[in-house]
Amino acid sequence: MARTNPVQFAQQTRAEIAKVVWPTRREVVLTTVMIFILAAVAALFFSLVDLGIRSGLQAVLEGLAG
Length: 66
What we know:
mainly alpha; single chain
């Protein structure tokens, strides 16, 4: 593996960073809102699944005990 001069490394790093297309403020806000919405939907889904499993398990256990 060839060793890179630290100055060369810094120059190459700057060149690569210059190629990056940074998101606009609007894109960042929209993406953040979408993430919060999807997290809320996932939390609701898993809460409902948990409630369903708990209710089903309680019904089965009560049926076995009584």
